[in-house]
Amino acid sequence: MSRTIRLASIPGDGIGPEVVSEALKVLQAVTEGGDTVFDVTEFSLGAGRFTATGDILTDADLEAISGHDAILLGAVGGDPRDPALRGGIIERGLLLKLRFALDHYVNLRPTKVYPGVPSPLSDPGAVDFVVVREGTEGPYVGNGGSLRTGTPHEIANEVSVNTAYGVERVVRYAFDLARKRPAHRLTLVHKTNVLVFSGSLWQRTVDAVAAEYPEVAVDYQHVDAATIHLVADPARFDVIVTDNLFGDILTDLAGAISGGIGLAASGNINPDGAFPSMFEPVHGSAPDIAGQQKADPTAAILSTALLLDHLGLPEESIRVTRAVEADIEGRASASTSGHRSTSEIGDAIAAAVSSITASSSR
Ligand SMILES: NC(=O)C1=CN([C@@H]2O[C@H](COP(=O)(O)OP(=O)(O)OC[C@H]3O[C@@H](n4cnc5c(N)ncnc54)[C@H](O)[C@@H]3O)[C@@H](O)[C@H]2O)C=CC1
Ligand SMILES: CC(C)CC(=O)C(=O)O
Q: What is the pTM of this model?
């Protein structure tokens, strides 16, 4: 029986449209001739639309996007040199608003060092871990303000919001994930020695939930120490659970050690299925390389592998991942050395996907 999946595509700003176009190309290739059809609706949101109309994400946009089965987003955020776009007006008004409104409380960011990838670490080892970053709380909720603004006595504050409900549901998701993975290890990353109130809530929640998962070995690291271990011995990690801000920072570092931010994929998941989940590369809109076909679309393509898996299409997801792995391995060889454009990389992965089966061995 054929299945139609309604996909909302939000290419966004900068390199977003360039990488989304390649991700859709691969999605088309992997579903070609199969029973699943992606019905894609594009939403032209971002800096361009804001500059032209003053709108970022209207109630009507949100309602229309909510009616889809999943969302693929490129990147948002205009050129920071444009004064009208400063203060993350698009990032907060579009990306964070979507994450909050669609209750994307799990921000899933897998990190793997693929064979042949040029990691800046001389010997990274078998790196394969997932960061489960809380996605709807922390200091990202916009709970703050400033007093005496613009004076030498200005006071600025941003409150990090951590609720028992919010922490417990993401911690449970992380334990479930750790239980399914072969290594069965979970590391809570926080700063409990200084951020004592929120840190204590996270630690107590992990301790309580751990009792229900005796097969999962639990560890704790302060966030500053975690950055050392991510560089010195990243293979020690399996599942990391952490808050919104620490997860944001750690996953850029994770992207860097695993071959570059152009390879780092993510999913903003609503595990309850009440709202569509949203898949996006970890990187931003990269105004420095936008419009030049210099962006690596691999992160966006790997984000569609996460999307396919989330939608119950594991075979297609594995085929996309295998095609990416083959392409990455080829990058180290003479045949594909030299600069390839964004669309050349997308073309190569789309072509590989068509000839790879989910059972192809690596
Ligand atoms: N999820 C999102 O939509 C995010 C949006 N942003 C926004 O993006 C804009 C630029 O932010 P930055 O902090 O500079 O982060 P960025 O991730 O856009 O760029 C950081 C560096 O990585 C490079 N880079 C990023 N993606 C790449 C790719 N696919 N291939 C090759 N190189 C790549 C860029 O050229 C730049 O040198 C800002 O407006 C920011 O707020 C930033 C992070 C996430
Ligand atoms: C641009 C921010 C709103 C978000 C961010 O940096 C991220 O989630 O990676």
A: 0.95
